[in-house]
Design goal:
The protein has 6 helices and 5 strands, in the order E-H-E-H-E-H-E-H-E-H-H.
């Protein structure tokens, strides 16, 4: 089994339908990852342990999804030097805007790269993680370039009436 390079973490099981989008991108690009539920509020010891051991376990990027108060990405950034990509999960109460603001507004010294709200943000989080890893992996860079070329080729030049 290949050692995971990316950690995909989320605050609860209900975040998985969104975060699955990041996993699917990493699967398509052949990037090994792990998935964990790590709640900033309900499992703080798990969060601390995950962040403190991330480097030693070989993680190079962490994608953290959270809704509502959305403290997980920022708290993870405070516990590790591994780059953290924050995914605001769409919420019913405020449509994910609360999550977005919570993840965006990090104090100086603890950056979180913040993606768009919801599934599109999670997909972009997977692509961002792959892009970071591709800086040191020529094979992954080639797969990512091909993925992007395929996306571009899938867009028609002319609109259709279909």
């Amino acid at each position: 089994m290949t050692k995971p390079l990316v950690g995909i973490i989320m605050g609860s099981q209900s975040d998985w339908p969104t975060m699955r989008e990041a996993a699917e991108v990493l699967d398509a690009l052949g990037v090994p990852y792990e998935t964990k539920i790590v709640s900033a509020h309900r499992t703080p010891d798990r969060l601390w342990d995950y962040g403190k051991t991330a480097v030693d376990r070989g993680l190079q990027v962490i994608i953290a999804g959270a809704g509502g108060a959305a403290h997980l990405p920022g708290m993870m950034a405070s516990k590790t030097r591994v780059p953290v990509i924050g995914i605001p999960v769409q919420t019913k109460a405020l449509s994910g805007v609360d999550s977005l603001y919570s993840i965006l507004q990090m104090p100086r010294g603890y950056p979180v790269a913040t993606m768009a709200i919801g599934a599109a943000g999670a997909k972009n989080g997977g692509l961002m993680a792959a892009g970071i890893l591709a800086l040191q992996d020529a094979d992954l860079a080639a797969r990512l370039d091909q993925w992007r070329a395929d996306l571009s080729a899938s867009i028609p030049e002319e609109p259709s009436d279909d």
